[in-house]
């Protein structure tokens, strides 16, 4: 190709070619989840067709480092070193008008990321994400940030599992009522994918104690969103880590009505004077 993949994408966005693609592309029965996966993969492959899944006239961006709308995203893509962007979608789930993904990225360096997309009338109209540098080694129990089950089961229990996680986040993480931990876990059985924490409820406790001795605090102020499909539930929360405003994305796997496994990404929330859009980090509907 005479033009780089990144430049092609930027041009596609900036000239609103998405609407042309949408009008000319054959209509398929792709689910919203499949549309998101295709769009994310296209960032690496350069396939222009999935751009048509975005509403070119109404696309709200909540990544605070990116300008609003398609033009903002196109400007970002222009600045990515040619051939460096890699995308490996590990998990993808849907909940009503939302699709959320867990992705292994190379995006200005290796990163772990969660993305949330909101749809209206089959088109993507809003995007949130949380990104952090990818750990170079497994955690103390040998788990990476991405390994473990990937497919949702127990679809009929989605509502129940979402309520369980919402209650856990508000009771334990926000209110700090740690005497109630036993209500949410099967003893000490708890698989942990945080890069610094070992398995088990005891592993979490040991890590929090170690941080406290170093003067490092992790505080959850509020939960903003709970999304789920079957036995996988994502909680989006706001708080502080080491004294800095932080966005917490926590993905839980539920088994036998207990929390069995956990993946997460924490991202520092940048100050308002550094932001490229005014939509806020959260702002869920």
TrEMBL record:
Keywords (A to Z) from UniProt: Lipoprotein, Signal
First and last residue of the signal peptide: 1-24
Coiled-coil regions, chain positions: none
Keyword Repressor: no
SnoaL-like domain boundaries: 38-127
Full protein name: Putative lipoprotein
Species assigned in the record: Desulfamplus magnetovallimortis
């Amino acid at each position: 190709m005479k033009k780089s993949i990144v430049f092609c994408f930027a041009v596609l966005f900036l000239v609103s070619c998405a609407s042309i693609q949408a009008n000319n592309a054959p209509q398929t029965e792709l689910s919203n989840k499949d549309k998101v996966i295709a769009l994310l993969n296209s960032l690496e492959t350069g396939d222009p067709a999935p751009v048509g899944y975005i509403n070119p006239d109404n696309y709200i961006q909540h990544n605070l480092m990116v300008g609003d709308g398609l033009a903002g995203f196109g400007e970002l893509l222009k600045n990515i070193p040619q051939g460096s962007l890699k995308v490996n979608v590990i998990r993808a789930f849907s909940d009503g008008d939302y699709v959320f993904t867990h992705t292994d990225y190379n995006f200005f360096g290796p990163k772990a990321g969660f993305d949330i997309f909101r749809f209206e009338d089959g088109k993507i109209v809003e995007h949130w994400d949380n990104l952090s540098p990818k750990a170079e080694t497994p955690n103390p129990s040998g788990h990476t940030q991405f390994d473990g089950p990937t497919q949702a089961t127990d679809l009929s229990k989605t509502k129940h599992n979402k309520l369980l996680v919402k209650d856990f986040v508000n009771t334990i993480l926000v209110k700090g009522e740690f005497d109630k931990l036993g209500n949410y876990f099967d003893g000490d059985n708890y698989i942990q994918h945080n890069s610094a924490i070992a398995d088990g409820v005891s592993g979490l406790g040991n890590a929090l104690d170690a941080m406290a001795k170093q003067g490092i605090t992790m505080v959850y102020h509020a939960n903003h969103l709970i999304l789920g499909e079957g036995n996988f539930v994502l909680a989006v929360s706001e708080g502080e880590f080491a004294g800095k405003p932080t966005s917490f994305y926590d993905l839980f796997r539920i088994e036998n009505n207990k929390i069995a496994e956990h993946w997460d990404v924490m991202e520092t929330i940048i100050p308002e004077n550094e932001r490229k859009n005014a939509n806020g980090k959260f702002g869920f509907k």
